């Protein structure tokens, strides 16, 4: 039997009131794939990510995770958010908790880990994102790049099956972008299935298996990396690339 895709959106629509934000968006992602999602501001990238993990319920179409239709029953939402880690532009760390405590919170509350095990897990994950020495620091004592790496570690603490990144470096000073992208690329190289909204095309070149271009709520292009970087893109995608590069 054919392996089901890890996640598959089929004909996803999203409407806020009368405004159509997503139109018939379909995307299938295999286990281990890294997909980079690009497109102009307002094209629906964040909404699409949020529909994939049911932070927003789609108003049409279906999302399958490991072959199971998760949109048919929104009771799946908690489980899905555990299986899909998400990282946002503005880190969204708890300011009153240290780096380690931010990471420990969900594994203790949701997975039932004891403090000692959660602390060990936090230190392992802080090593993975290359800042073990920052474990006892509060977010306001960390650089933006360090905070975002704590946010990635926090997402990984739930042992997700895939990661969604929504413009993870766009709030960072240029000198910190690289350290965050490096961690994301390392995770991808280790086999973490990922969808990354980012316009860092150096990262896309290095880590992406596929590039998706969205415009006006629709997926205009879904190209494998070799074709994309070989210049085999449609005219609208090329026009957008000319603007950002
Ligand atoms: P992108 O991430 O590509 O910049 P978004 O997904 O954030 O795009 O937004 C797509 C469109 O949907 C925008 O026009 C935005 O104003 C609209 N939108 C997003 N969230 C909401 C919401 N909660 N209510 C109404 N409109 C929204
Ligand atoms: Mg967005």
List keywords for this structure.
245 residues, alpha/beta, six-stranded mixed beta sheet, 9 helices, 10 strands, 37% helix, globular, binds adenosine-5'-diphosphate, ATP binding, nucleotide-binding, ATP-binding, MetN_ABC_transporter-like, P-loop_NTPase
Q: Can you walk me through this structure?
A:
The protein is an alpha/beta fold and 245 residues long. It has helices spanning 45-52, 77-83, 99-109, 115-128, 144-156, 174-189, 201-207, 225-229, 235-244; strands spanning 7-16, 19-29, 34-38, 60-65, 68-69, 84-87, 162-166, 193-197, 210-215, 218-224. The protein has a 6-stranded mixed sheet with strand order 6-7-8-3-9-10, with helices on both faces. A hairpin with a 2-residue loop joins strand 1 (7-16) and strand 2. Helix 3 packs parallel to helix 5. Adenosine-5'-diphosphate is lined by residues 16, 19, 21, 39, 41-47. Magnesium ion (MG) binds at residues 45-46, 166-167.
């Amino acid at each position: 039997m054919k392996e089901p895709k890890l996640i598959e959106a089929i004909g996803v629509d999203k409407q806020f009131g009368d405004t159509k934000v997503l139109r018939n968006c379909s995307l299938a992602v295999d286990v281990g794939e890294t997909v980079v999602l690009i497109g102009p501001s307002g094209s629906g990238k964040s909404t699409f990510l949020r529909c994939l993990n049911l932070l927003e319920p789609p108003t049409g179409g279906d999302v399958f995770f490991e072959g199971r239709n998760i949109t048919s029953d929104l009771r799946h939402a908690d489980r899905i958010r555990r299986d899909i880690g998400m990282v946002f532009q503005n880190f969204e760390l708890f300011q009153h908790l240290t780096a380690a405590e931010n990471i420990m919170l969900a594994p203790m509350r949701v997975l039932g880990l004891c403090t000692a095990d959660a602390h060990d897990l936090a230190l392992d994950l802080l090593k993975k994102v290359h800042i073990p020495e920052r474990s006892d620091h509060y977010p306001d004592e960390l650089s933006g790049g360090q905070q975002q790496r704590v946010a990635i570690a926090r997402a990984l603490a739930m042992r997700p099956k895939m990661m969604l990144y929504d413009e993870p470096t766009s709030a960072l000073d240029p000198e910190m972008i690289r350290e965050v992208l490096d961690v994301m690329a390392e995770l991808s190289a280790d086999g973490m299935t990922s969808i990354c909204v980012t316009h860092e095309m150096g990262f896309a070149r290095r880590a992406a298996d596929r590039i998706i271009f969205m415009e006006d709520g629709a997926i205009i292009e879904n190209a494998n990396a070799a074709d994309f970087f070989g210049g085999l893109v449609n005219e609208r995608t090329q026009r957008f690339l000319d603007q950002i590069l």
